[in-house]
Amino acid sequence: MASWIIQITVMVLSVFISSCQGKKDKVLYCSACKAIVDELNYSISQVDPKKTIHVGSFRLNPDGTMQDKKVPLARSETHLSELLDGVCNSMSDYAMYVDPDTQEKQYKRFAPRSSGAKGDFPDFNNFQFDGPEASNALKFACESVVEELEDDIISLFSQDTEHVHQQLCNTVSDYCKDSAHTNEEL
């Protein structure tokens, strides 16, 4: 009798747990994916294109030579890994933006970049500032996307792929697949 009660309890709990799994907020994760691409593109553009890094094996060949090559630092896997470690820290510069014409919602950058022009401020009328909770949610989504897609992100950026927003956020991850603003740059 006791084993029957335990079996029923386990079955009820498993049904309850499977039905309570949360769905990912499409707007939040799509915006986080696009923000990652935007921030990485900006960080890569700030690196001196003349800087290179040695990659390859650091073992000596039998003839005493070493096989290594130089690649541009900006798109090296080492540099991209370092950038990915800190990319989610800039999510506090984003807020919910509601398009005045279509009422589409997405997170957009509202804070100008440090090297941007002085008049580079957006129109704040269409932004919704919900306090630190909103940027914490976006930061959490960013960290989830980076953790899930780290290898794909590094691969796309190291190959200098065209339209990384579409490749990463639509094709690889499906975060923005049903979004009306899939082709729009941040």
Automatic annotation (TrEMBL):
Domain DUF3456 residues, every copy: 29-176
Family annotation (Pfam families): DUF3456
Keywords: Signal
Signal peptide (from-to): 1-22
Domain of life: Eukaryota
DNA repair in keyword set: no
CC terms in the record's Gene Ontology section: endoplasmic reticulum
Family: Belongs to the canopy family.
Protein's UniProt name: Protein canopy-1
